[in-house]
Amino acid sequence: MLDLSMSLSAQQNDDSTMGASSSTIVTPEHDPDTTAAIENINIESNDDSVYADLFKNPTAEITTTTENVNLTYNSTNSVDLNIDVFSNDPAELMLLAPFSYEKRKLILNNGPCQPQKIDMPNKRFPVHNSRSFQCSWYMKTMPDGSATRREWISYSCSKDKIFCIYCILIGNEKSTVWTSTGFSSWNKASERIVMHETSSNHIEACLKIKLEDTCLPLLPSMLKARNEFVATNRKIVEAIIEIILYLARHSLAFRGHRESWSENLRGNFRDLVCLLGKYHPILASYIVGHQEKNKNKYDFISWRRQNQMIESLASYTRVVVLKQIKTAKFFSLTMDSTFDNSRKEQLSFVIRYLNEDSGEINERLINLKECSNTSSEQLFNIFEKICNDNSLNWSDYLVGQSYDGASNMRGSYNGLQAIIRRSNTAAIFVWCYAHRLNLVLTDAVSSSVNAVDMFGIIETIHDFINSSKKRVALFELHQEKCYGNKQRKRRFKRVQTTRWWSHDLALNTVLDTFDALCNTLEELQKSECTSDRKGAYQAKSLKENLICDKFLLTAFIYKQLFEIVTPLSKMLQTIDIDLIGVIAVVDDKIRELKNARSDENFLKLQEKVYQFKMCTSVNNEDFKPLPLNRLKRVPKKSAEETQDEVITDPLQHFKIQTFFVAYDTAIIQIKERFSEITKGIYKDLSLFSRRHLEEISKNNDLLPKDAFDVFSDVYSKFILKDDLKREYLQFSKSYFNFEQVKLLPLQLHSSEIEIDDALSGSLTDGASESEIEDSFENSQNRQVKEVSKLQKNGCSLSIVLKVLLISGLSSTFPMLTTALKIAVTLPVASTTPERTFSKLNIVKNKLRSTMAEGRLESLMILSCESDIKIETDQIINDFARKSVLLEKAL
């Protein structure tokens, strides 16, 4: 799989001389990233196995040198040989087993140990029972009287035994006499030597040794050609991987309807391959060869190879995320499901964790599974299987879970959160705050008759204008006449959508294009009076409903209400917000709503409406005033001494029945739906805020006696209450000193645009790109001050944790560090699954609705987690393991 480059030089002396010899095998790097060498060659009867083993295992550079009696061998399994110590005594050489090719070459080049009598102590071989070894056994006498040296016999001076060096190196001999124990029955030596050298195992070992010595000198040229072949293939696959990454990260389609080379358009993938081939000579050569042969042996651009590369890329991305999760140890879960374009239920599985390297909170998509049955039991089975497949220890380290308000998710007894908590009580459930706030807005916009009428008119305008291309064109024409280049052309938005701020978006579109809308309705009333009397009447009716004080007053009431609440909705959809941030911004919004619910503010709204009417092209006299209320006489009941005062002033009646009701509903609903943030574990978490740290640093007695009781009970496996309180008090005294030294920024986000960009994936109703751009351009102009105010560091736990980590105090305050890591890991909302569903609508659109589940999951991971850096070499290695053919090519 890796490039292999080897230069082989071997010098072998004549067998008869048994003199000094040298052999060197060097494997230099083929490129900066790849090196390989020859190791562990086992030569079987099939000649091809020699070359197969050469390419099997990559190693570092290997150099072996033999000079007379000094020998050094270095490899991945570093072994140092010194012939001065071991010599070529076969009994000592057996310590080097197993024998790789390099070891065998060294031993054979050094030759067998065949000493003469003159070389022995006392000038003779040891004698036992009047018997001793004879030097004549080194030679074999042939029938014609000639003599041949037995190269395989090796005498051990240390054991006074003889061995078969060939059988030792190859290891085929079943008997251990000639390979490990040694032969020393000198009275039977002549007979046994002949028996051994004529045995089949010995002959096979000799043949393998000679075959290896004959074939391997040819390998350098073969290896050079193979290295070039592998390097070329890896360059081709590298270019193809870059194309796949580009298409996947941009959520673009890969395949075309027809992909043959004779077609002009072959789909994005093949067309990009051809385009890149114009600037990539190696890829261009491959494309030409592929077109000529029509089917290449190594086809890297087929649909099957395409799927395998996508799978390898997604697997690598998932592995990177899982490594970060395991480093962080603590994680929380968010899950949600939706229908895709093929009407299949897709379950998004998202993990929230603290990235130890960057100190940031990450929410990553791990899996996307089809789930036709969304019962809580089935969802738990899927959750458990995903955790097991990804080696996530959820029973110990899952610290939180967040879902929407569906009963199968948040049910107190049989919901998914309840089932998980039976096995892990520390996995506290957080009902998605963004979904809760959406319910608050839903109640607020339905709180009065005037509110229902106003949003009903806006929805009717959307349906009336967008039902005809002629009306749409006319509306755009009047926008150009009224505003020119001062603002971009706008389109009407629906009110009843699944987007959390659709009411805000639709209302501001009407107010921002009020003049153009009135002119459009007036022209439609005149032009369609003969051809479409129903359309003309609708245009007249809509214009009359728009040009009235009731509509404008109601619109400006909710415009102001949305300016307060919509930034909170956007904040709850960000990834890096934590529970302390939620508490801070919710309290702040409740105060703003209470301040806005006043007679003074209502007077200001009246002034704004008046200024708006003066700036429009419609005559002020044409605006219909608030209607007078009909006096109702209420019968006086028995024993009643007083009678209710009837409100006759239209403005006073409007203020009570619409203005106060809208704000009262919003305030009451927020308090009810966010009431738990002032209870239980939330109180303990609030102690980690900068405000409480500052208070307690001045007076330790302000720390409540029951501080962290609930938190330590829930996470008793990781937190000791007494240690946490002690470290908390010590840390509070020094926190602000470290914060000043580190010169932290005043805001977590550098600009409001970054926050809006982070929310760009939160639209879930298939909104067009122009609608999304309109919404963000509109919201940026209205909410700059609000967003910057909500993003101050004092409203977040993450800033406290960052100071702790950056200052290197995690080892000094280990219990406090663990508590803060758990706190920032706790989920706030389940909005990331909603963002993945926005990607799902793009990846699996109507033209790609037949996509297989495995390919869909891989493309979703690559599209959603596009910021993860990909190591191309590792992807190629994993891709090569997909088949034996690819392994040979790469």
Automatic annotation (TrEMBL):
Origin: domain of life: Eukaryota
PANTHER family: DUF4371 DOMAIN-CONTAINING PROTEIN, PTHR45749
A Pfam family per the record: DUF4371
MF-aspect GO terms: protein dimerization activity
Bias (Polar residues) ranges: 1-26
Start and end residues of each TTF-type domain: 129-221
Full protein name: Zinc finger MYM-type protein 1-like isoform X1
Chain segments carrying region Disordered: 1-32
Membrane spanning residue stretches: none
